[in-house]
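Action item from last meeting closed. Structure (143 res):
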């Protein structure tokens, strides 16, 4: 199965933030939207300048202290962002996310941000596939 199918099911909404926004405002956005990562974009969401996650905030709080809350998101964000395309295979992405220890991948097509997928999206899709297979097998055995 391809990422495009996951995006079709879950939607293509992507929350973005500008690099100059403070970490405090980032945390408010994460809490308000109940998400764990935000794509950093300088142009309002068309391109990817970076990604910032809850994990980034926690690590910087630990190493730098509370003053990190007043810093811009650009001070914490990851700038070498792994991305995927709509045509990418879910199994390959699951392996990449596991190997790289990342939970979120922006979906980019023709240089433009199109969506974001999380490891949770991939796991949910796999559970749905297994459930459908199970139901087919039960129908076959009892049919």
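Sequence:
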């Amino acid at each position: 199965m391809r990422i495009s199918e996951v995006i079709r099911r879950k939607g293509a909404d992507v929350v973005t933030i500008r690099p100059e926004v403070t970490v405090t405002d980032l945390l408010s956005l994460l809490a308000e939207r109940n998400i764990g990562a935000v794509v950093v974009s300088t142009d309002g969401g068309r391109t990817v300048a970076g990604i910032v996650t809850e994990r980034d905030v926690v690590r910087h709080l630990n190493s730098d202290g509370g003053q990190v809350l007043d810093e811009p998101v650009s001070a914490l964000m990851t700038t070498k962002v792994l991305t995927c395309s709509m045509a990418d295979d879910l199994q390959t992405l699951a392996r990449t996310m596991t190997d790289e220890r990342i939970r979120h991948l922006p979906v980019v097509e023709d240089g433009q941000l199109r969506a974001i997928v999380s490891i949770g999206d991939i796991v949910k899709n796999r559970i749905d596939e297994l459930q459908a297979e199970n139901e087919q097998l039960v129908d076959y055995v009892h049919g």
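Note appended to the action item: The first strand starts at residue 16 and ends at 17.
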